[in-house]
Amino acid sequence: MGVTRRQLLWAGAGIGAAGALAACSGGPDGSKDTASSGADSGPPRSGGTLKVGALGKASSVTRDPHGTQSNESDYLILSLVYDTLAVPGAKANTAPRLAASWKSSEDLKTWRFVIADGAKFHDGTPVTADDVVWSLKRLRATPAGASRLPGIKPEGITAEDAGTVVLVSDYANAELPLLTRLTTFVMKKGTKDDQLADAPGTGPFKLDWFRDGNARLVRNEDWYGGEVLLDAIEVRIFESPQAMANALLAGQIDVASNVGAVAARTAETREDVQILRRPNDMAMPIVMRTADGPFADARVREALRLAVDRDAMVKQVLSGYGTVANDILGTGDPRFAKDIPQRGRDLAKARKLLAEAGFDTSKTYDLLTSEDISGLAESATLFATQAREAGVKINVVKQDSKIFWDATWLKAPLYTSYWGTNDSVVFFASKTMVSEAGQNEAGWQEPTFDAAYRKAIGDADEAERSKALHRLQEIEFAESGYLLWGMADGIDLAGAAVRDLPELPGYGRVQLEKTWLAR
Amino acid sequence: MIPAAAERATAPGPARHLPGAGRAARLAVRRLGMLALLLAAVFAAIELLPGDAADATSERGESAADTTLRREALGLDRPVAERFWDWISGLPTGDLGTTAHGQPVTSVLSGPFPNTLLLGSLALALSITGALALGSWAALRPGGRVDRAVAVASTAAFALPEFVVSVALLLVFSQWAGWLPAVTLTGPDGAPASWDMLVLPLLALAIPQIGWNSRIVRGALADQADLPHVQAAIIDGLPRRRILIHHMLPGALPAVAVSTATSAGMLVGGAVVVETLFNYPGVGAVLAGAITDRDTPLVAGVVVATGAAISTLLLLADYVRDRILGTTP
Predict the structure, then answer these.
(1) What is the pTM of this model?
(2) Could you report the predicted ipTM of this complex, rounded to two decimals?
(3) Which residues of B touch A5 (CB under 8 A)?
(4) Helix A298-307 / helix A462-479 crossing angle, nearest 10 deg
């Protein structure tokens, strides 16, 4: 399985996802890239129905834009029908959508979002700040509401006038607009729970029909965001990536969304199939507990980071569909510190550090992992082999997913984790590394890091914030509990006629309003 | 069935049979009882799995307090016996409860169940027709070339897992030949968009069952062949076909009926695999997802629906046997 519930839910929690490097970095270039193939088939043209396959389980179908969305198919449908305030972007990781612009107060606590001109629901009524406030409050009131809109209390969501929404954060947060991507779907004020199936959205497509996770959507002629090219999109739910790849190879669907590296290998020989690689899609870091236990000494963690053979990991675990990483999370961030030198393999230095730290190399250490996503357990096994060359004996223990999340995650001294949200360094800092973070996976408490983080999101001066963000990444590179060896590409397959599919990692892939068909 | 035998012993003669309707009712009650037991077992089994629906549907990073809240909202903090009673007491009114994702179980199953019923009954019909044809063909000349070929082929077919059959069918008919669609896509009514999408899943399900059932048919016909009236017919020089149809098949029917009912159960098991591989929108996929989510009401809902269908078949098989053998099973 390429994708799992946790990962999806995670993106559904929406404090970020999708990224930025795709459009501007020279990421590994698929031989049959859509951007290049689009060039020789003339200017974008209107018309046609795009059939998109997306993963999902029939048992988990949900229609609620603010519900627990574990199906990619549901999320895709929702994000075509409804708009969020902001969306993942390429040049900056947060791009405008239903909110045309935003501005903060001096202290970075109060943010004003201006609703886009001409934005209206599919039934013709204009979108007002009241609709947005009502929707955000509904989102905030869900069980995971506090983590979806962190730092924002329900009473901190208000309408200033018909076209302006005000969000007040408990603390200074220069990255607040980042929080409004992915989950802030806007419905009409007062939409009842039993009306969700037909509730009008504001998005580029209108719902024609929905049945058991499948849907047909037709173009919204009147979309405020610009011309939509496709006549219609048909979304089909697939339980398994394999069936989805088969459907694409048989020509039954035009796009197999997030289908994974195995399918890409199968399709490599097919001239009529485009393989799309979206870099920085998925991180699979190894977590070393810093609070206590055998890896509490920073020298030991450094040694393990020097012991891993990153190129071999990418080649073998990801079948080459990925890139080497540098132990800093949030690789897709436009402000990622590319100037920090890439850490390479140095077994001699690793042994020396282990000796200095007095690490007990006679013992065998358990590395706990699960098979939640493809490649995860394999990454643990390969790492164990590589670490042995540095004198560290590691025994890989595969756990049932439920047991892993209950007993191992956030607790064990050494385990694998994975994250589908990789376009924000600050996001990872706030969620997994700052001392008080609820998901501090390595139990890391580092005052200098905390200080850099607070400056990076809270300093009134942008240059200072940017300097602090760099400092933050230096500390993370040197001392954190993470060993991030590489980043897996997101992989879509598409038929020959499909043009301009989104190239962003993560949930950026659902933005299909610019996609068109050359046939 | 010792109690039944004892009953027969104490009630000799024609009176040993309960009146028809009473017997039918007793059989039905027994099947219902089995279904209720099965459902209790489902609740108990999911209770034994690690984690519960509140964990399984939680979002990463959701606080423990939020998960507890949802656990209460889903009613999972109550003892399993109480939840089972609540759920099963709603059953007669057609209320199958609510899934862990907040959808009514009946609405989640309203599309997939008819699809599975369609695929399952077609597969069953194909299995039985195929098995009767092959088994009879083999029985026409016991020990002949056809008999031996059918024996080997049917054993091999039954030994093949649905997964292997499915992948082979996909490769041959969809990827190489391009004759048939690889997966099933549905239209707005929730049913397969075209009939040819049914062919591959149907074959994948039916082939192993044809193997199984033709062994049974062949065996039952062999037993019939030894009976005096069949031997007499053979000595009288009646045509083989006539002997088969008029003298052997009727007697083999009870065994075939029971094996059909057994096949129905195995088809449901195979459907989980086949539906996933062919993306067929049936209850198999729903069941697999529901178990991962520890979604007890949904699992139980699937069990009720398929269990009712299989119980009906078993009941029919009971009646057939009852009719022909004249005994209470």
Answers:
(1) 0.83
(2) 0.77
(3) 56-57, 292-293
(4) 80
